[in-house]
């Protein structure tokens, strides 16, 4: 399979634990639909990557971070992606709370994104980090205490009633516009 044999299509995947990355994927899917691109979001936990990925012209992957790493299904997805003879271009977005800080939304500024790209030997066409959501009410007691402690260290809110969505939706719009551009470029 060469790049020119590919069907012009976008395969949109996400990995979530608490649901926020799915919300971003759904929003992105709606942005793409408005540009005439049909790309229903697929959960990598239930729709893992297969060799068929090679037939698509662009892969988009949104992945949540938990305890310092992207979810394990992301690593599994990327192992399959890397094993393809000619992997399609990849647009990757990491979702984490570190990205709420200035300078932490780029591939060089966000430590999780930077480490994943290095470790997996990726050369994504597009790589960004989106700030995620903090919702203490959803977490187990242990997770809540740990995240509160991390927030204390990083100047974030520690009130256990806090529910804040840090995601910049204009940044997601911009990502969507760049995905459309990549798709049209072929
Ligand atoms: C148990 C737990 C661990 C987390 N670990 C990190 C972390 O190491 N670094 C970080 O920046 N954000 C961390 N986060 C924040 C998540 O990345 C953020 O809440 C994101 O929106 C989760 O996406 P999801 O709802 O799709 O699972 C953590 C959140 C939880 C609940």
In words, what does this structure look like?
The chain is of the alpha/beta class and 186 residues long. The protein is built from five helices and eight strands. The chain has helices at 20-34, 72-83, 111-120, 141-154, 169-185; strands at residues 7-15, 42-43, 56-66, 69-70, 90-96, 126-131, 133-135, 163-165. Strands 1, 2, 3, 4, 5 and 6 form a six-stranded mixed sheet that branches. It has a two-stranded antiparallel sheet with strand order 7-8. It is globular and about 55 Å long. The relative contact order is 0.17. Flavin mononucleotide (FMN) binds at residues 16-21, 64-68, 95-98, 132-134, 139, 143, 147. Flavin mononucleotide is lined by residues 16-21, 64-68, 95-98, 132-134, 139, 143, 147.
């Amino acid at each position: 399979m060469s790049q020119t044999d590919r069907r012009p299509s976008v395969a949109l995947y996400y990995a979530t634990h608490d649901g926020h990355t799915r919300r971003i994927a759904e929003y992105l899917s709606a942005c793409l639909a408005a540009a005439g691109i049909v790309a229903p979001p697929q959960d990598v936990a239930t729709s893992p990557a297969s060799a068929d990925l090679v037939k698509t012209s662009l892969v988009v992957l949104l992945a949540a971070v938990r305890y310092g790493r992207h979810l394990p299904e992301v690593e599994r997805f990327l192992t399959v992606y890397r094993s393809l003879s000619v992997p399609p271009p990849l647009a990757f977005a990491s979702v984490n709370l570190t990205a709420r800080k200035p300078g932490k939304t780029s591939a060089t500024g966000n430590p999780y994104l930077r480490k994943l790209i290095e470790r997996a030997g990726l050369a994504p066409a597009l790589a960004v980090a989106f700030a995620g959501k903090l919702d203490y009410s959803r977490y187990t007691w242990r997770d809540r205490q740990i995240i509160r402690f991390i927030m204390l260290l990083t100047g974030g809110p520690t009130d256990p009633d806090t529910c804040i969505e840090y995601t910049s939706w204009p940044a997601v719009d911009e990502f969507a516009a760049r995905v459309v551009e990549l798709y049209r470029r072929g």
